[in-house]
Amino acid sequence: MGIRCDRRDDVPPSRSAAAVAALLGVLATAALLAVPAPAEAAPSQRNPREVAAARSYFTDTELIDQNGEVHRFYSDLLDGKIVVIDSVFTTCTLVCPVLGQKMKSLQAAAGDRLGKDVLLLSISVDPETDTPAKLHAFGEQFEAKEGWYFLTGSRENVARVLGKLGFAVDDKESHSTIVLMGNEQTGLWKKTNGLSSSGELIELFRGVLEDTGAPAVPGQSER
């Protein structure tokens, strides 16, 4: 089974929709830290043009979740949210169960924010097989709660979204193990190997949760 594990050295995080097209890379490198308690979200200070550009890039392609509900990708699942995104398929027996457990740890780390300003998105790379019912059963293996969406749809729609995220593959067996984390309100996007330790993943997630959109101080490394 072919696995793409696209690990990279640390590079500056991205804060633009255009750079998301290049897949925005940062790897977590620290031990497990506690995620801060939820705080009331501040009103968005984003320029409307930036919002429009993000919507144009990510698109409002319709996907279907494990409960049969239809969602517009950008407007319903990304806009103003903090998201963690991976790609899976329900008949995968090697990597996907591991990714599912790692996502489950992030679900726990999100706490009460899950389903509010934090969403987990697991997108099927085998939409013709992965019906909402199969995705629902798959999610139950990881005790998925409200706010963790398992997404499918028409082959064309799923391919369009996967392509925008850099997850497009010709063979489902070669799907990426990359996990994307984004704070769409501040524009910060990071990526990491989903097979990293839960501690590394939660540390990276913590940084995305805490991001305020302020420029990094020169000479300080961003975790």
Could you list some keywords that capture this structure?
223 residues; alpha/beta; Glutaredoxin; five-stranded mixed beta sheet; 16% strand; globular; disordered N terminus
Task: Describe what this molecule looks like in 3D.
By secondary structure, this protein is α/β, with parallel strands linked by helices. It has a single domain, classed as Glutaredoxin, CATH 3.40.30.10. 31% of the residues lie in helices and 16% in strands. The chain is built from 7 helices and 7 strands; from the N terminus they run H-H-E-E-H-E-H-E-H-E-H-E-E-H. Strand 4, helix 5 and strand 5 form a beta-alpha-beta unit.
- Name of the top-level CATH class: Alpha Beta
Number of helices: 7
Largest sheet: 5 strands, mixed
What is the 3D shape? globular
CATH architecture: 3-Layer(aba) Sandwich
CATH homologous superfamily designation:
Glutaredoxin
- Taken as a percent bin, the fraction of beta residues is 15-25%
The average pLDDT score comes to 83
Going by helix content, strand content and strand pairing, the class is alpha/beta
Query: What is the helix/strand order?
Result: HHEEHEHEHEHEEH
Number of structural units classed as domains:
1
The side-by-side strand order for the widest beta sheet comes to: 5-4-3-6-7
The total of beta strands comes to: 7
How far apart lie the N and C ends? 32 Å
Low-confidence stretches: 1-13, 22-43
Q: Cα-atom Rg, whole angstroms? A: 16 Å
**Into which percent range does the helicity of residues fall?**
25-40%
What is the CATH third-level topology name? Glutaredoxin
